[in-house]
Amino acid sequence: MRWRIERLGVVGSTNDLALARARAGEPEGLVLVAEAQNRGRGRAGRVWSSPPGNLYLSLLLRPQKVAAELASLSLLCGLVAAEAIAAVTAGELLVRLKWPNDLLVGGAKLGGILIEAETTTTGLAIVVGLGVNVRIAPALPDRQSVSLAALLAPPPTAETLLVAFLERFAPAYGRWTE
Q1: How far apart are CA 130 and CA 83, in angstroms?
Q2: What are the tens digits of pLDDT across the range 2-48?
Q3: Which ranges in 89-127 belong to alpha helices (H)?
Q4: Can you give the pTM of this predicted structure?
C-alpha cells in the first residue's frame, strides 16, 4: 500500500472530506490527517470532540469485498491501532477493544474508530476514521476518557502514532483483502 498523506489544519470532519474525495474518484490509499475537527463524529452520530494535540485521521480504502465481509474491518482497525499504541509506548499500556469501535485503557476511552462505506461511480469506498487522545482527553457525557499524556511522561506524538499505525495497517489490510 502506498499512502498519500495530506496534512490539514482545522477541518469539519476528515471522514466527510475523504468521502467527498471518494465520490470524485480518488483511489485507495489517501490518508487525511487533521490538527483538529469541529464536526468530528463517532458511531450513531455521536459528537467526537476533536481539540488540537490528538490524532485524527481518515483512510480511503477500496476493497474488493462483499458487504457481509466488511464487518470484520472494524476489528482489524482496532487491533492495528492497539498494536501501534503498544509499539509507541514501549508496551507500557494495555489497550483493550470494546466492540465495535472503542479503544480503552483501564476502562477509560482512549480513542475510537468510525468506518463509513459508500458506493460511488468508481466502486465501493470505505473510509476508516481513527481518533486517539494523545494530548487531551475530552470530557464524555457517558464515560471516562483518558489521554496518552495523562498516562505517560513523555507521551508519544500524534505523528509518531500515525506512522506506527500506517506501518502496521498496510500489511494487515493486505492479509484482510486476501
Answers
A1: 14
A2: 899 999 999 999 999 999 999 999 999 999 999 998 876 665 566 66
A3: none
A4: 0.92
